[in-house]
Structures are given as structure tokens and as C-alpha cells.
């Protein structure tokens, strides 16, 4: 009997270990991300501003591809970031918090509500304006920042809320990826696209035959990236799809699967190098009075309101309705206020919001600057609202 009990406890701990690693990994990386954001803003407003912009504009040729440093970060490094997201999404749906249907209903529905509400708020504020195209910007959640703030301000929050926010953010990432593919790609060149899809189909076939050779998938991924880029589909989409094709099981040991190995080796690079590099390249906005006053332009207000109000409204509203209707059960030691706090923290858009903004306003620098200011302001406000809610919950229970 003791052996059975010991095995149950041991298995339970082993099942929770990946989540513990994921949660802490994302939480701590948010500090580095914040640091590089501050550095970017400092550089953009210092005597080094011209040099900062010059470096980002420098062109670098790799093979037959010639891009600026900024585009290598946004189109190249971010493809690896999205590839890791693809790995995470597949793992969560096969083995993680999104494995069972009952466990996925609440975070999936809440994530959808949390995407629809901010998009609607933004679109209503920008209706009839050329800036209306940016409706996808406030829909995103930065998983690193949101989990980082949660770990700092909600130490006494039930584990179910951390799991809920993690699952919600992953579904949110998937939604953002779909939106980028459908609405923020340029005129599609179908011949090039067909070649890119053929490369990804070859990766699917490798998966079918349980090929565990990473270089085979990397080679096909590079081909897909090249043709997606020339097809007018943002090449990061190729990264996500490639991540979904990676084998998740090894016939000998599940922990030796290619998915497990690639996520283990690439996730730290994504969190500690790629995301900070993205922040350094994209967060440098000039904080002159004229620029700050643009925050009150429709696109600025739309993003700020979408992140700080739309996100918690959509997430909490959806969760409240599902719980009240009895479609899902309230997790143990969890209250409606916890969902409200989690909804507020999901309004920290940052990385993915910056990325969508760079696509929506690629040809309009003024709108892009205002959008970045709105993202930073909205994310700060959302984190403050979430912090206050969780501190009030702690005060109420003391």
C-alpha cells in the first residue's frame, strides 16, 4: 500500500515538473525583457539615438537574403520564437494543461472572449479611420510578462490561476498567429506559397514515419521560411507550423522525443536572447511631448483601452458566464476575483502586440510610434490593475 501511495505521489510530482519549469522560466525572463525595453527607450531618447537607428537599419546579407538588422530580428529570430511557441502549443495539447476537453473549455473560451472584446473596443474607437487596421494589436497577451507579474504580486494565489493564465496565454498566442496569417500578410504569391507548403508537408511526412533527425526538419523549415517570405505570408508562420510537425513521442522514451529535446534547448534561447533582442530593436520610442500627446490619438486610446479594459472584460465576462451557467466548475480555492485579476494581467500585451503593430503599421511610422506608446501604457496600466486586484484579494483573506 505504501509503495502504491509513493508511486502516486512520485508520478504526480513528475507531471507537475514541466509546468513548474515553464512557469518559473517565463516569469524570470520577464525581468530581462523589461530591462532591455528600458535600454531601448533610453537609447532612443539619448545622444545615441541616431547611432541606435543606424545600427537597426544596417543591412546584412546571408546567402541570397539581404535584410536590415531590424528585419533579421523581426523576420528571422522571431521565426525561432514562433517555432518554440509551436512546440509549446503541441506539448500543451498532447500532454499538458490543454490535454483534456474539460480542462480546455474555460481557458479557450476565456481567451476567445479576451481577444474579441479588445478588438471590438479598438475598432469602435478607430471606426472610419485608416488606423482601424490595427484592431489586432490589443488582442495579444505577453505570456512572459503576465506570468512574471503574477509570480511577483500574487504569491498566495491558488495554483489553478497560474495554470489558467498559462493555458489562456498559449491559446491567445495561437489566436494571434491565426490573425497574423489571415489579416496581416501582404498580397500572396501562390506559386511561392505552394513551395513553402510542400516543404512543410514533407515535415509532416517525416513526423508520420517518426523521423527524429532535427536537421531534416530544420532544412525543410529554412525552405519554408524562404518561400513564405517571398509569398507575402509572414515567415514566422512557417516557424509555428514547423513546430507543430515535430514528433512528440519516441518509441523508446517519451522524454527523448525530438519535441522535448528541441524545446529544452531552444526555449532558453527564445526567452533570454530572442525576446530581449526583439524588445531592444522594437521598443525604442522617443518620448518627446509631441509623441506622448499622440497617445490620445484614436490608435493610442484604442490600444490602451483594449489592453487595460477590453482584456479583463472579455476574459472575466466569459469565465463568469461559463461558471454561472454551470458549464465548468470553479477550481478549488479560487474566486471570481482571481479570474478578474488574471484577466487584467492578460492585458500586458507587449511582445506579441509590438509584433502585430509592426505588421499593421509597417508603412506608417507615426502610427507605429503611437501604437508602441499605447502598448507600453496599456500594459503598465493592466499590470497595475492586476496588482491592485490580487493585493485586495490577499488583504481580504488576512
From TrEMBL:
<keyword id="KW-0739">Sodium transport</keyword>
<feature type="transmembrane region" description="Helical">
    <location>
        <begin position="301"/>
        <end position="323"/>
    </location>
</feature>
<feature type="transmembrane region" description="Helical">
    <location>
        <begin position="27"/>
        <end position="49"/>
    </location>
</feature>
<dbReference type="Pfam" id="PF06965">
    <property type="entry name" value="Na_H_antiport_1"/>
</dbReference>
<feature type="transmembrane region" description="Helical">
    <location>
        <begin position="101"/>
        <end position="125"/>
    </location>
</feature>
<keyword id="KW-0050">Antiport</keyword>
<keyword id="KW-0915">Sodium</keyword>
<keyword id="KW-0812">Transmembrane</keyword>
<keyword id="KW-1133">Transmembrane helix</keyword>
<comment type="function">
    <text>Na(+)/H(+) antiporter that extrudes sodium in exchange for external protons.</text>
</comment>
<keyword id="KW-0813">Transport</keyword>
<feature type="transmembrane region" description="Helical">
    <location>
        <begin position="335"/>
        <end position="361"/>
    </location>
</feature>
<feature type="transmembrane region" description="Helical">
    <location>
        <begin position="131"/>
        <end position="154"/>
    </location>
</feature>
<feature type="transmembrane region" description="Helical">
    <location>
        <begin position="161"/>
        <end position="184"/>
    </location>
</feature>
<comment type="similarity">
    <text>Belongs to the NhaA Na(+)/H(+) (TC 2.A.33) antiporter family.</text>
</comment>
<feature type="transmembrane region" description="Helical">
    <location>
        <begin position="266"/>
        <end position="289"/>
    </location>
</feature>
<keyword id="KW-0406">Ion transport</keyword>
<dbReference type="GO" id="GO:0015385">
    <property type="term" value="F:sodium:proton antiporter activity"/>
</dbReference>
<dbReference type="GO" id="GO:0006885">
    <property type="term" value="P:regulation of pH"/>
</dbReference>
<protein>
    <recommendedName>
        <fullName>Na(+)/H(+) antiporter NhaA</fullName>
    </recommendedName>
</protein>
<feature type="transmembrane region" description="Helical">
    <location>
        <begin position="373"/>
        <end position="393"/>
    </location>
</feature>
<dbReference type="InterPro" id="IPR023171">
    <property type="entry name" value="Na/H_antiporter_dom_sf"/>
</dbReference>
<keyword id="KW-0472">Membrane</keyword>
<feature type="transmembrane region" description="Helical">
    <location>
        <begin position="218"/>
        <end position="246"/>
    </location>
</feature>
<dbReference type="InterPro" id="IPR004670">
    <property type="entry name" value="NhaA"/>
</dbReference>
<dbReference type="GO" id="GO:0005886">
    <property type="term" value="C:plasma membrane"/>
</dbReference>
<feature type="transmembrane region" description="Helical">
    <location>
        <begin position="190"/>
        <end position="206"/>
    </location>
</feature>
<keyword id="KW-1003">Cell membrane</keyword>
